[in-house]
């Protein structure tokens, strides 16, 4: 079984690109994850992981994630190699994400990492679609004729 779940802060803005031969979206970013224990020196240590996201999820990450934001990543560990221009072989270990959850919302232009968790449905700006005729809980009363059973 090859499965990993990480929660951490982005160390850089996501980079979106498209594969020329297929047109598939690909986003890469890295996250910093604190270890659950301290070292012998009493300091908390942090691990850094490179994340790869494909398809619609890649576009979503590029549009809504930003450096410093808290995110959860579920995926698998992948090792690969490539040759540099100088002919040297390089080895890379990265996380190929199956699912990315944004745990900290805010305007992407904000670079502060202290905004609180907000759900995706909370009102972020004036351009958010708000249906009319909803009660205070977000529901609309239905007529008996509108119910299909």
Radius of gyration over C-alpha positions, nearest whole angstrom: 20 Å
Q: What is the percent of helical residues?
A: under 10%
Strand % is: 35-45%
Provide the spatial order of strands within the biggest beta sheet: 1-3-4-6-5
Alpha-beta classification: mainly beta
3D structure, described in words:
The protein is mainly β and 149 residues long. 7% of the residues lie in helices and 43% in strands. A five-stranded mixed β-barrel has the order 1-3-4-6-5. A hairpin with a 5-residue loop joins strand 3 (25-38) and strand 4. The radius of gyration is 20 Å and the shape is extended. It starts with a strand and ends in a 47-residue tail after the last strand. Mean pLDDT is 81; it is low at 112-128.
In short:
The protein is mainly beta. Helices cover 7% and strands 43% of the residues.
List keywords for this structure.
149 residues, mainly beta, 5-stranded mixed beta barrel, 6 strands, 7% helix
